[in-house]
Amino acid sequence: MSVDRPGLRIAADSETIERDLSRLVLTLVELIRQLVERQCVRRMEQGSLSDEQIEALGATLMRLEEAMTDLCDRFGLAPEDLNLDLGPLGTLL
Questions:
Q1: Among 3, 47, 54, 67, which lies 20 to 30 A Cα-Cα from 89?
Q2: Has residue 93 got a pLDDT over 80?
Q3: Which of 33, 43, 15, 41 is nearest to 92 (CA)?
Q4: Interatomic CA distance for residues 73 and 77, integer angstroms
Q5: Are 93 and 30 in contact (CB under 8 A)?
Q6: How many CB atoms lie within 10 A of CB 91?
């Protein structure tokens, strides 16, 4: 027995699916990038990194941020598009 429930159907075209999947993946990458950046700052403040390590991490984090900006541009996303609303928990980023 089949019940037709129009409200349960998902109308999605390939462009919408690609954009939403890109948004989800880039959101996860941005979350990880921010976590790594915070960890680097903590380690730097604790004095557990050498000057060379600090320079290398800084350069790497800047390149990663530039890559994220390029990917957002490529998929037509703004940085605020990556801040997913988690309902009662608030926003992700």
A1: 67
A2: no
A3: 33
A4: 6
A5: yes
A6: 11
